[in-house]
Amino acid sequence: MQRRNFIGSGLAALTAGITVPQAFAQAKENGQETSADPGARIPCPISLAQWSLRDEFRSGRLKNEDFASFSKNTFGISAVEYVSGFFKDKAKDKSFLKQLKQNSAIEGVTNVLIMIDGEGSIGAETLAERTQTVENHKKWVEAAQFIGCHTIRVNAHGTGTEQEQAKQATDGLRALSTFASDFGINVVVENHGGLSSNGQWLSKVLADVKMDNCGALPDFGNFGKYDRYQGIADLMPFAKGVSAKCINFDKNGNVIETDFAKAMKIVLDTGFRSWVGIEWGGRGATKAIPDIKAAKLLLDKVQQQYFDY
Q1: pTM as predicted
Q2: Which of 81, 102, 137, 291 has the greatest number of CB atoms lying within 10 Å of its CB?
């Protein structure tokens, strides 16, 4: 049995008995054709964030090495975004990283980025803490380069006043980006809680870093009380990727939390034409697969319908 067929068979139970949102009920059961208009071109190619399938990776039903194959053969998505927490002890494991790289190459899947968590606060109060955080991230910069990613995502958390955290985050990001530049790797900050969820604050920090390889990963969610559409607009001038966060869908297949057509218009009006990553944040393992399919259909649809390219 071929590897890809084994993977599909072993995970078939995940999709059993699942109801796809009404608007996409006619989508093919096998997920191989998930475009609103299969074969049509879209301005921004679509990638899949590993976090979307967190229950499968945490349970061991899906292995990191099989992510690329599963993404392509289940959703028709040929680009993936990794999460460091799912292989936190393997950043320097060349055998493991080589397997990730080889499996992606075999499937024709692009490794886009690694989302880094749990390695300290880039905006920590003391220089010693920031220096240690930068040191902790260096192995991920090297791992990202090794597997062919162009970016790592970091968090700009810290302590102190808004001004103090801005200065500290700027310092930490500049130090890490300086190191990453030698590896051809971008360092991006996601609006991911705390002051980073304030688009104005984060855009000012990124402007102050003043490095071409330091930018943003605007997430359609995660803005808290800050207006999400304003936040997306604030961060897009610095964007090196976009995270299309989705949680719940209505009966027409639209994301409840965010107007994807409005969000994508903001994205495309800036001239951005790179990866838009689906990040499903809903609850319930049985919902993950149909909702990811629904998100891809929606992203395809809004790009094809509303934009002249």
Answers
A1: 0.87
A2: 81
